[in-house]
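The methods section describes the discrete structure representation at length, but only in general terms. An entry of this sort, consisting of the sequence and the corresponding backbone structure tokens, reads as follows:
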Amino acid sequence: MAEKPRVESAISVEYLRSVVQHLEQLGSHPLGFRVAGTPEERAAADFVASELRACGFDVVEEPVPVDAWRLLEAYVELESGRRFECASFGGVPETGPEGVSGRLLSVGRGGRRELDRLDVAGAIALVDWCDDGLWPYQVGLELGLRGAAAMIVSSLPGGPYYQAPGALGSFDGLWHRQGPPAVTIRKEDAAVLAARDGETVRVVLSAPLHRGAHASNVVGTLPGRRAARPLLVGAHHDAWFSGAFDDATGVAGMLALARACVEAGLRPRHPIIFISHTAEEYGIVESSYDWCFGAWHQIVAEHREWSTRAPFYLNIEGCGRPEPFVVDAPPELAAWTRRVCRPAALDGLLPHGWKLGAPSTWTEVWTFLAAGVPGVNVSTFSSEFDRTEYHTQHDRSAEVDFDYLAGLTKVCARLLLAADADADRFLDFPARARHLRQRLRGVPHAGLERALAELERADGRRAFTAVGRGLLGLDAKETAAYPHEQTAHDVENLEAALAALRLGQRAPAARRLARVGLNRLCADLSHEAFALERSRRGRRAPRACWAAQGDPDVGPDLWLELVSLRGEPGARPPGPWLERSLERHLARARRELVRRLDRMAAAARGRTFPLPRVDTSASRR
């Protein structure tokens, strides 16, 4: 592969640095924020387009329909006039210029049992985001239904995010329209507010929302010797705060690769399409799947042809922090990834090591995989970064090792060139069959077992489209899984709950039911809130976006059964109705499991299911 040294030698550390530093200074707020559909995101897209045009590429800025949310100002003010700087979550409603005033009320983590002991009507609720099991938007829904005026969120010491000193955080919103305005605050400032419980405070959030706006995916093409079947390289230019690591480094790597290919005079077999996505962090309101929206729109609405033609997609997430290089690869690409990365490590390009990971719905590669495009995601994310500086103002270029980033960009070049050289033979379908057998875990289905034997003999790109569309799924929490896994888990727990109930063991029965679908949330949400949350989940939910590809089984609504088993005040006492209800839910779950296994067997035999219909309709006003 004579092109490899030429391309690698053309990758410039200083160019990588200049791109990251340019993007990080684009923001609607002193701390940053280039959010899809805003002038700042437009400036980022225009910059990327100009850099690709400077390489001589044909460049198209493809419109993506979004609900543009633009953070301008956010703070909490005491009666004394003292202010605490805040941020917020994407899509959260603003307060208006006068803000919202009310009694400050500490509500702990904000579950319904804590709220039942408090009068939150008209109050400003101070919420501790202390675990991943109950997200702020779910607490916001419960608070909104109870009449709270606004919400202040912090992640106190020991929490899941924003643990760096002085960290101020943001995230995609997922906000329900019933939820009140909300801001995030530093944990240090939250401690000050907690000592002022009961005092009047004012929350101001200036964050206009423009429904039906447009953002842009930027696409530049390097021609190949063959006109069809393009290789794809992507990153995302939108960001919370400055987003230097997440994901200006990915955009820089993508642009540096494009530039190096031109400077090296590369004439690839396949066209190479370089992409900068919008709306990775947040794209639309009133959806439980509001992230990775730009990538989803591109592969499902704009370029459906890629789902059957593109041999490979390389997604570059945050890279360059001094952590191991992580390649999230499906089973079909694991062995191929090892063949590329092991020599790269021996060549000194991976000084912090490397490891294989599993594709995640938190990166844009998943929606491409589920559409049928083979691909990997690369990054140097770590659990420590996620806990401390992820989506905070600490994500700055000073934290990036640009020499390391240059080395990782060279590894990306090797992945890309290897795919170009071997696009028809690098897919390992026996590995997929082995992986799925392990995950079946005794679930019987003779047809699927026979189909997996056929899958082991599969060959070529077309088979992967069938695999992506038929074997990639989601569980109830949007975690990547096989389509049967959540349903099989639910059947197991419903069977165990029913057996425990028949023995008069109510507590074990309740524990098992809480593991079915989304029903873990019943402990923290009222029935009204749980029903609203559940109605936004699953493939048939409004604005389901990429979740429609994964067909998550959110399970039945067991709220009434759970409060009955737990003996909560006002609950219907357990009786024959409860056993009959569980029998009905179990019968439905068993039928659904058979349906999913049948569909998986068809996909393993090579049947290609159609892509879901695209719903980009405007949200309700």
